[in-house]
Amino acid sequence: xxxxxxxxxxxxxxxxxxxxxxxxxxxxxxxxxxxxxxxxxxxxxxxxxxxxxxxxxxxxxxxxxxxxxxxxxxxxxxxxxxxxxxxxxxxxxxxxxxxxxxxxxxxxxxxxxxxxxxxxxxxxxxxxxxxxxxxxxxxxxxxxxxxxxxxxxxxxxxxxxxxxxxxxxxxxxxxxxxxxxxxxxxxxxxxxxxxxxxxxxxxxxxxxxxxxxxxxxxxxxxxxxxxxxxxxxxxxxxxxxxxxxxxxxxxxxxxxxxxxxxxxxxxxxxxxxxxxxxxxxxxxxxxxxxxxxxxxxxxxxxxxxxxxxxxxxxxxxxxxxxxxxxxxxxxxxxxxxxxxxxxxxxxxxxxxxxxxxxxxxxxxxxxxxxxxxxxxxxxxxxxxxxxxxxxxxx
Length: 394
What we know:
Blueprint: H1 3-23, H2 28-37, H3 44-60, H4 68-78, H5 80-83, H6 110-118, H7 123-128, E1 135-139, E2 157-159, E3 162-168, H8 178-181, E4 185-187, H9 190-196, E5 206-209, H10 216-224, E6 230-235, H11 238-241, H12 244-251, E7 256-260, H13 266-269, E8 277-283, H14 304-321, E9 325-335, H15 344-353, E10 358-360, E11 367-369, E12 372-375, H16 377-380, E13 385-391
Parallel strand pairs: 5-6, 5-8, 6-7, 8-9
Antiparallel strand pairs: 1-3, 1-4, 2-3, 9-13, 10-13, 11-12, 12-13
Helix pairs in contact: 1-2, 1-3, 1-4, 3-4
């Protein structure tokens, strides 16, 4: 593909991404894969170059652009090399007119920006949310006792306050590596690893991972517990939860049990676990504002109504989790959001609604936010998270 053809391909993909963002369609990664599945003539360098253009345009535009061309023209206004690709060549985009509309540069839609400000996220913190993220790995200590032996040839970096973590440059592929195939490592952001430490899981304890999804945190908990005790992983999404058993087998995590729950009937399905768990961990569904480094188009999908629904879901999950905790046990609440209504505000309301519960510092890392801790890309070089650790009275 010529440079112009690559740029035109990026414009066409951006049109699809914008339409999907407005209508709740597929993610950008999926749309890129589909685009090239129908265009086998494009080589690996072409695909990589087009992908880079697409994501550069997405990261640059805070508001949803009108069209893919406007997003790419905005990028061209900032980069003369991109502007040169609008050359009118065969299969390439037409030259840019002097008065042609371009997507405005920004970090987030204006309404989200106001909520960030109210939640203590300044312009510099917000800008870091759309920078490219590195590839973080969690070394599975059930199978590998020495992380230093892994991926040194790829420039792996040890993280001082997270000895089981490795950091590799953005774009590194490790899925075909022997270490990944053998379950020695899992892809998991360092921030996700840090907030899981708030469970303070030790060998022999009983933990419920209430919103386990595909089980990233369940696997980390099993390793923290040295494969001794019980991790009950539950979710209402059959497809995501079904991915956990093969992952657990690959990782050698034999203490994980799974239980599929029916939406809005979770409490009934977990009645036999009342007052039994040493720890209940809620990695709650949220706006994902802390993960924009990896999913920058996600900020185009948010609406105030969607956040209201998520806040209601989070509150309901906290209510389901509380009776499952044994007296003296802990409830760990996690969201990959930097909005107070999903984080510190939820905990404030929980403590009002549940007299007798207290709080403990959940993790050493991060900065205090309300009754919990917050991690951000700018301050902690991780995805953004809020985490709190609540203690049930004996």
